[in-house]
Amino acid sequence: MHNADRTKWIVFNGEIYNYRELRADLEKRGHGFYTNSDTEAIIHLYDEYGADCLQYLRGMFADSHLGQVDRSLFLARDRVGKKPILYSHQPNGDLIFGSEFLAILKHPSVTRGRLWCDRQLFFNLASRRRRPRLSRYVNWNPATGSSGKTATSRLGDTGCPIFQKIKISEDEAIQETTRILRESTKLRMISEVPLGAFLSGGVDSSIVVALMAQESAAPVNTFSGSGLRSRISASSNMPAASPSKCRRRV
Fold first, then answer.
1. CATH assignment of the domain containing 93
2. Hey, what's the torsion of the CAs at 35, 72, 15, 5, to 10 degrees?
3. Could you give the CA distance from residue 39 to residue 164 in angstroms, rounded to a whole number?
4. E strand or H helix at 21, and its extent?
5. pLDDT digits (tens, 9 = 90+) for 181-206
6. Is the pLDDT of residue 54 over 50?
């Protein structure tokens, strides 16, 4: 997808949950839209804020921005790497990138030794000794660098912390957790296609479905699966996990 004057292009994988609010703000700033998609909102957000646009995005995403005027390439992914970005530097200055190992390894010039990804992220999240890594982006401009080098940065100081220590009572913690879960569920229910949920019988999926039911005017379609040879079946817990406004398909 491109911007209005076709000077910037984007390839996007994921979903932006707050794109409607972002679009409304961008329209007030003079940006014109020709679609109703979250993808176009990212293009205009990048036009407005550059690399700082990442701190406004709420969702899961991996995207690449190509600037035709300055011949720049900007790669970005979400804070926890749900949609990963992998790239490979080539001796001739080329940068090959993708969002899956198998996709990028299909290129004849890419070897596993030249493939880069943020593997440390998955280990640092559980460590209190290191600051957790946040969003990582790559800004590549071969027009200004003789060897086409990439510059990498992480948004560890942009006001988007993953962990934050606070002192509150148990009741306040329950209320705040409920508020965050309700808001997060509501954001993820913004969709132009029918919604559903996997219901395992556990507490986590049951809470999500219950919150979906409160936000939905129609019954929530839930789906469960169980193996014929499994000793513990999720379906055995279904009666306790099925809210009255939900219906189940096995």
1. 3.60.20.10
2. 0
3. 30
4. helix 19-28
5. 999 888 888 777 788 888 876 778 88
6. yes
Phi, psi angles (nearest 5°) of residue 149: -70, 155
pLDDT of residue 39: 92
Q: 195 burial class (0-12, 13-18, 19+ CB within 10 angstroms)? A: middle
- Domain range for residue 196? 170-249
User: Tokens at residue 21, please?
Assistant: 């609010």
Q: Are 22 and 112 part of one and the same domain?
A: yes
Residues 46 and 146 in one domain: yes
For range 134-143, the mean pLDDT: 42
Domain count, the chain: 2
Backbone torsion region of residue 53, taken as left when φ is above 0, otherwise alpha when ψ lies between -120 and 50, otherwise beta: alpha
Structural tokens at position 209: 């479905």
Is 163 contained in some domain? no
Left if phi > 0, otherwise alpha if psi is -120 to 50, otherwise beta: which for 95?
beta
Other Cβ atoms closer than 10 A to 10: 17
204: phi then psi, degrees, rounded to nearest 5:
-65, -50
pLDDT at 101: 77
Select from 102, 120, 154 the last residue of a domain. Answer: 154
- Report yes or no on whether pTM surpasses 0.70: no
User: In angstroms, rounded to a whole number, what is the distance separating the alpha carbons of residues 242 and 234?
Assistant: 12
Q: Which two tokens stand for residue 140?
A: 């590549």
- Regarding whether 234 and 124 lie in a shared domain, the answer is no
d(CA 67, CA 54): 17
- Tell whether 139 and 229 lie within a shared domain: no
CA distance 170 to 51: 38
